[in-house]
From TrEMBL, chain A:
Pfam families: GST_C, GST_N_3. The lineage of its organism: Eukaryota, Fungi, Fungi incertae sedis, Mucoromycota, Glomeromycotina. Gene3D superfamilies: 1.20.1050.10, Glutaredoxin. It catalyses: RX + glutathione = an S-substituted glutathione + a halide anion + H(+). One of its GO terms (molecular function) is glutathione transferase activity. InterPro entries: Glutathione-S-Trfase_C-like (IPR010987), Glutathione-S-Trfase_C_sf (IPR036282), Glutathione_S-Trfase (IPR040079), Glutathione_S-Trfase_N (IPR004045), GST_C (IPR004046), Thioredoxin-like_sf (IPR036249). Its EC number is 2.5.1.18. The keyword Transcription regulation does not apply. This is glutathione transferase. Keywords: Transferase. It comes from the Eukaryota. One of its GO terms (biological process) is glutathione metabolic process. GO terms for cellular component: cytoplasm. Residues 91-222 form the GST C-terminal domain.
From TrEMBL, chain B:
This is glutathione transferase. PROSITE patterns: GST_CTER (PS50405), GST_NTER (PS50404). GO terms for molecular function: glutathione binding; glutathione transferase activity. One of its GO terms (biological process) is glutathione metabolic process. Its EC number is 2.5.1.18. It holds the Pfam family GST_C. InterPro entries: Glutathione-S-Trfase_C-like, Glutathione-S-Trfase_C_sf, Glutathione_S-Trfase, Glutathione_S-Trfase_N, GST_C, Thioredoxin-like_sf. SUPFAM superfamilies: GST C-terminal domain-like, Thioredoxin-like. The keyword Transferase applies. The keyword Transferase applies. Residues 91-222 form the GST C-terminal domain.
Length: 222, 222
């Protein structure tokens, strides 16, 4: 039975799971909800996500929510089944460090990045003005985080040396913010710049962003 | 070689790791830093935590940071070695659901909870600020909505994933603080949540850990 992924392909959070599915070579069907509003329906909360969020993944009868948990589950179950790609190493220490970097993404990288994402992508669609003070502070906060990443990436191609789930998780929203006029934050730091270019050029990641582009082209009024 | 944990037991991310170590029957040494300011020293940032945070765990030469990543690592490496306690089930689907509930904790439960912890426990004693009643009111409302969802999730279950797991452990320390700081009604007014919290409070490891914290605060007052 094919895996069913409920979500919008332009959502950075859903894209994490799409990239993971593609990296592991797992076939899936994407099932976008009718609208963001429909996530608040009683039926959605009862049968899909109790907090009314996306993504939700069905693997046969098994339902799992929350992008990071979904990706860990997919890796646990399918890593090595369709191809050789390793997203979480088998060695317990290396896997521990991947988890650590996943936590850095959640704790330090994502907060300022999400503020920028909101200002650059969501505010306009709600017909509101951007707040330049919020953008300035978020840029400063993200710059400090990227200074740490610059050191963490010294002598390494990816956060944990080899490509892993930790790199995937910060890809999608980084792409949106990078593309929205803040590329200098990544490009001014040589290790970060090289790492970002490497990620951007991975097949699975390129294809995932292409899917997003074609969703917008086919649904311009969404 | 004994495990070395750098942190303050009064701060609940450190306490998460302490509870996990106790649950798995692992001996450890707690090493509080010289001061909170010392976390920003160049040496600490270079050799302990690149973002200047606690806790940090050393297992021999292996260093790992971020409380939930540390707990997953300890479980991965030591579950079943010192006792029979299962924090992450071996079955891939059950483990996936534990991960999902850990993600609910960090995405929905912890944000309002940590605001209440700060307001009730730390604002006055450590930062000389009076608790802000508006922040407390909003955080209570947000946490109440989350606990309404938990009330449904716990229907017919003793713990979040049926059996006790890391998903319950991670929210114990912060909950203990807020419950004991005048907000017990949030848990006690919801029957499933109330029973679940009582069960958690009665676990040996939690009882012992919460006693340790109580004496920290009592001594602080002197």
């Amino acid at each position: 039975m094919t895996i069913r992924l409920i979500g919008f392909p332009f959502s950075g959070i859903v894209l994490r799971v799409i990239i993971c599915l593609k990296e592991l070579g797992i076939p899936y069907e994407l099932d976008p909800p009718a609208s963001y509003k429909s996530l608040r329906d009683e039926d959605y909360k009862a049968n899909k996500h109790p907090f009314a969020k996306i993504p939700v993944l069905f693997d046969g009868d098994f339902k799992i929510t929350e992008s990071r948990a979904i990706c860990r589950y997919l890796v646990s179950k399918y890593q090595g089944k369709y191809n050789d790609t390793i997203l979480i190493p088998n060695d317990v220490h290396k896997a521990g460090l991947v988890d650590q970097f996943i936590s850095y993404e959640f704790s330090y990288y994502d907060p300022p990045l999400s503020k920028l994402l909101y200002q650059e992508k969501v505010v306009k669609s709600l017909n509101r003005d951007q707040d330049p003070e919020v953008i300035k502070q978020a840029r400063e906060e993200l710059a400090k985080v990227l200074d740490v990443f610059e050191k963490l990436l010294e002598g390494k191609e990816y956060l944990n040396g080899e490509y892993s789930l930790a790199d995937i998780f910060l890809c999608p929203n980084s792409y949106y913010v990078y593309d929205a006029g803040h590329s200098d934050l990544w490009d001014n730091r040589p290790n970060v710049k090289n790492w970002w270019n490497r990620l951007y050029n991975r097949d699975a990641i390129k294809k995932s962003f292409e899917e997003t582009k074609s969703f917008w082209e086919n649904n311009p009024k969404f | 070689m004994t495990i070395r944990l750098i942190g303050y037991s009064a701060l609940y991310p450190t306490l998460r790791v302490i509870i996990c170590l106790k649950e798995l029957g692992l001996p450890y040494e707690l090493e509080p830093p010289a001061s909170y300011q010392s976390l920003k020293d160049e040496d600490y940032i270079a050799n302990k935590h690149p973002f200047g945070k606690i806790p940090v765990l050393f297992d021999g030469d292996f260093r790992i940071t971020e409380s939930r990543a540390i707990c997953r690592y300890l479980t991965s490496k030591y579950q079943g070695k010192h006792n029979d306690t299962i924090l992450i089930p071996n079955d891939v689907h059950k483990a996936g659901l534990v991960d999902q509930f850990i993600s609910y904790e960090l995405s929905y439960y912890d944000p309002p909870l940590s605001k209440l912890v700060y307001q009730e426990k730390f604002a006055k004693k450590f930062f000389n600020k009076d608790p802000d009643p508006e922040v407390i009111k909003q955080a209570r409302e947000e946490l109440a909505k989350v606990l309404d969802v938990y009330e449904k999730l716990l229907e017919g279950k003793e713990y979040l994933n049926g059996e006790y797991s890391l998903a319950d452990l991670v929210l114990c320390p912060g909950t203990n603080y807020v419950y004991g700081a005048g907000h017990s009604d949030l848990w006690d007014s919801r029957p499933n949540v109330k029973n679940w919290w009582n069960r958690l409070c009665n676990r040996d490891t939690n009882k012992k850990s919460f006693e340790e914290i109580k004496s920290f605060w009592e001594n602080l007052g002197k």
